[in-house]
Amino acid sequence: MTSPTDTQGSVTTVYKVSGMSCGHCEGAVSGEISEIPGVSSVKAIASTGEVTVVSAAPLDEAAVRAAVDEAGFELVGEA
């Protein structure tokens, strides 16, 4: 598991999400996570199940889990 890394006033965290299989899945997950306050960028990759999130501060995992659930997928944890 990777822990969040601080870079120039932002935090990058890689999460593992199960169930993503296509670009539409990536968009759904990215869209929901990007609505969390403080998130500046989200990159979901269906083939690996990894979602890289850049935010101003470490995110509450419950908020990320809720966003992933809202998109119809399951947060497995940090990659």
TrEMBL record:
Keywords of the record: Metal-binding
Domain HMA: 11-76
Pfam families registered for this protein in UniProt: HMA
PROSITE patterns: HMA_1, HMA_2
Record-linked InterPro entries: Heavy-metal-associated_CS, HMA_dom, HMA_dom_sf
UniProt cross-references to SUPFAM superfamilies, sorted A to Z: HMA, heavy metal-associated domain
GO molecular function, one term: metal ion binding
The protein's name: Copper chaperone CopZ
Species: Streptomyces griseomycini
